[in-house]
Amino acid sequence: MTNQPNISIEGLKEKYRINEPIAFSITIRGVLKSGGLPHIEITKENSSKKKIYSIAFMSPVPPAASPEYVEQKLIFPIENDPQAPIHAGEAGTYVMTVSVYADVGKSYEVNRRILVE
Question: What superkingdom heads the lineage (predicted)?
């Protein structure tokens, strides 16, 4: 049995207006493996080419380290983020995907839908 990490997303609303700033925090708890950068991406549903946000961030697990338990909280947009403010310029349903590398050596992800009107 695998210990999947717990990824919680706070502050993300279900509905936004066009061009309304999107801010949120992510907390990652669990056993993670090094060798990959955790990643957040927000794309328009059914159209991965319509990406409104994409960022990879440093893993708290040092490179070449054994899998270990971590607890990491990040607030987005991050300070000095060149993509800020995060917003959608057109109406539709968007999907936020947060992915991390679990102790099993493969990616684990959480998805949340956002409606923009």
Answer: Archaea
